[in-house]
Amino acid sequence: MIPEFADPEAPSLPLWLVRAGDSAPEIPSEVEPLAANWAKAQGFSGKPGQLCLLPSAEGGLGGALFGLGPQPKAGETPGRERFPLARAAAALPAGNWHLANRPQGLDLAQAVLGWLFAQYRFDRYKRIEAQAARLVCPQELDRERLIAMAAGEYLARDLINTPASDMGPDELEQAARNLAIRHGAGIEVIRGDDLIARNFPMIHAVGRAGAQPPRLIDIRFPGTGPRLTLVGKGVCFDTGGLDIKPPASMALMKKDMGGAANVLGLAETLARLGLHRDMQLRLLIPAVENGISANAFRPGDILTSRKGPTVEVNNTDAEGRLVLADALALADEEAPDLLISMATLTGAARVALGPDLAPLFCDDDGSAATIQHAGLAHADPVWRLPFWEPYEAMIEPAIADLDNAPSGGFAGAITAALFLRRFTGQARCYAHFDIYGWQPAAAPGRPKGGAGQGMRAILHALPDLLS
Question: What sequence ranges are listed for the domain Cytosol aminopeptidase (predicted)?
């Protein structure tokens, strides 16, 4: 589906955004007295998410009040909801609406973006009624920028929500090709045994037991300037391999290509905004299924990576870092100015930070601070975790250079990030995001299901990161 605003020339009803005052709601003076008295009689207080429909003089629907809660104090942390206005989007009656006022302390662009996010529906397999209330984009906002960010989010959600029966490596490749066609990018795909001939042995090893051949998808956008390379984990389904997952752990493994979905979504936004022209944007997606068959890679196997270090496979369910390692090694050979990997990589990240916060790993303090600040400012939070040097010994087994799954279970997100860092070194800056890619319970603007994480944090940080 395509994110859309209401036609600004069409009739629309006013939506008043109201702060909760100390003793009474701060209803704007422009609201007709009859409507204001009606709101008071209905017990409208301006508390967060409260909606009050207003009558017109003729007895019809004349508008609505929506509560934002008290005026935030300076330096106050964000509330429980990232996109409070999205509640109005879901609750208002059908029709076109416009924001009739601009309360102090409201991030208008973020509020309107939340409304667009609330419009999303995944209706490929089931008829779902489209959201009836549509918003007129405020004139002072950059309409196309908001649509571009929503389009990137929609793309990521669609890809993640699609089950593996319809989103295997073949279909993920097609989604990448569609993106390249839309925006005039070049694409090369290395498949099957050609991965061995072209020196991507770990991508081949992980994916060779899948129902569809493994592959490496390489997209280059036209542009000049600093090099930005995005690497996304594209494990379209993860059984765990021979170290098979229990059923409960396998239930959501269609989302194990969430890293790929997020880099494709980010690229969609960058291309729609034309920002790719001011950089050399490249996407690398190792697309595989971690399946079970006679030719599946085994616990105890030693794999030789593209970069050269050998890897002992101590758990076939730690496959994401193996396919990313070969892709990162290729990316690093060009010494990009900024190299970013995104992956649904470790359960340890969820234990540490839960589903809302994606761990960010980056050795450059300034870049890490820029990304984290941008994420918090634009309702796309990430949280920095360290590349902790003392844990390097944990990923060094006895008979190979590296261990893909250190025993003990401690610091799993950090040891996975340290493993990936071993395959970089030429890039001016490397950042890794261990995302979840899934919204476990519906929230305003964030329906249950596939979710973007880190895309807008990166988008808003890029001007500083690539300067």
Answer: 315-322
The angle, 0 to 180 degrees and rounded to 10, between the axes of the packed helices 258-272 and 143-161 is: 160
List the domain boundaries for the chain: 13-132, 146-465
CA distance 314 to 294: 18
**13-132: in CATH 3.30.360.10:** no
Per the residue annotation, which of 177, 245, 277, 384 is the catalytic one?
Answer: 245
Q: Write out the DSSP string of 196-211.
A: HHTT-HHHHHHHTTSS
What whole-number distance in Å separates Cα of residue 11 and Cα of residue 123? 29
What span, in angstroms and rounded, lies between the C-alpha atoms of 52 and 49? 10
Which residues are paired to 281 by β-bridges? 228
pLDDT, tens digit, for every residue of 310-364?
999 999 999 999 999 999 999 999 999 999 999 999 999 999 999 999 999 999 9
User: What CATH fold (topology level) applies to the domain 146-465?
Assistant: Aminopeptidase (3.40.630)
Catalytic residue among 272, 321, 421, 446: 321
Quote the pTM value.
0.97
245 catalytic residue (yes or no): yes
